[in-house]
Amino acid sequence: MASKAVDEEIERKRLESVSQGYRASERHTRYSNSEHSHELGHAFYQSTQWARLSARVKVRDLYTDSIDRLVYGKGELIVDHIVPRLVDESRALDESNLWLLNREHHNRKTATEKRMTTEQLKIMSKDNWIKLLK
To answer: Which helix (H) or strand (E) covers residue 119, if one does?
Structure first.
């Protein structure tokens, strides 16, 4: 009988340990995902205001990539911030700070931005980016 009680106690502690590890892992995953979402600004890009603005920019620019000047289909272009939102949040909805890039140009621009300082990014103009990405 004592052996059964000991076995039950060991099993209870094992389950408690597994449960604590699971809860810690779950907290880490939630934290990681929330940080990632914040970094990418998912809420901003899901807003009605952004959807309307980005649709307006696509029509304004006639679905034309700003670098190669080729026309693309609806789903092939990304509305991009010339001066990134993380550098100047006040220009996030400024239509003059938005342009269209195909995925390749957008990925190259993003990779280049990661190597630049905040001060360098603040002074980059549309023309500077076009020269850099061509």
So the answer is: helix 118-123
